[in-house]
Amino acid sequence: MHHVVLERWSRQASPLHRRDSRAKIVCLVVFLVAVATTPNRCSPYILGYALLPLCAVLVGRLPLVGVLARAGIVLPFCAALGLVSLLTGDVERAAALAEKSYVSAMAVLSVVGTTPMPRLMSGLESMGVPRFLLWVIQFLHRYLFVVSEQAQHMRLAAESRGLAGGLRVRKWQARAATGALAVLFARSYGRAEGTYRAMLSRSFTGRLQLLVPHTFDWKDGLVLVLGVLVPVGLRQLMVLDIWRSL
Fold it and tell me: Domain check: are 163 and 60 in the same one?
């Protein structure tokens, strides 16, 4: 599952992994705003934006093919809007929508793939994001691991009972899919309740503490300056180019 892969990526070691999460969050927000506000007819600049997450992927030592493949998940969601633009004859708008979505997904993956979830949530909390929203994101992320673990156990149990057979077995599996899904979520809910009670017994107060606190040094400042100036500079060059063409 994708969240398991991202969790494994975020636990690796690289110069980008060691940078402060707040610097990476600010750079990501600035990058997304710059990409979103780029006019549709400026495709060369959108391709220029794509070099930034590619550099982040290389510095973060993430698998390039894996990042490019997972960034394509957003394309089916923007295909509907792109199809509407194509039907109205606006080809540039459809192409820009796909390009912006893909580049933005690459940027998000480069940050999430180089920042463990606890550090990402702690950085967002220190920047003033509501704690309740962070709780929802954090526990949803952890709950996905519980569901995936229970699903793997159920699949292994089903295969050990010889349920991977011919056409007749597949029909039975289709009829039993609803029941299996209900059992999956019931077992996952019970496991989550046990985990939550264990957290309460260990004096959980609603805030996840980091073993190593944030330390913002000059390297983080350099990443912050470069991550802000480069997309903003590309955005300003694009504005100047548009003014010259008028």
Answer: no
Cα(71)–Cα(108) distance, integer angstroms? 9
Rounded CA separation 178/182 (Å): 6
11 & 107 share domain: yes
Nearest-angstrom CA–CA distance, 43 and 49: 10
The model's pTM is 0.77
Q: CA 77 to CA 169: how far, in whole Å?
A: 34
Find the mean pLDDT for residues 38-58. Answer: 85
Residues whose CB falls within 8 Å of the CB of residue 210, separated by 6 or more in sequence, listed in order: 118, 119, 122
**In this predicted model, which residue has the larger pLDDT, 32 or 207?**
32
**Is residue 121, in this structure, part of any structural domain at all?**
no
Burial grade of 227 (CB within 10 A; 0-12, 13-18, 19 or more): buried
15: containing domain: 2-115+216-245
Task: Render pLDDT for 154-179 as a digit per residue (tens, 0 to 9).
Answer: 677 766 766 554 444 455 555 556 66
Quick check: is 207 in a domain? no
Residues 162 and 109 in one domain: no
Residue 126 lies in a domain: no
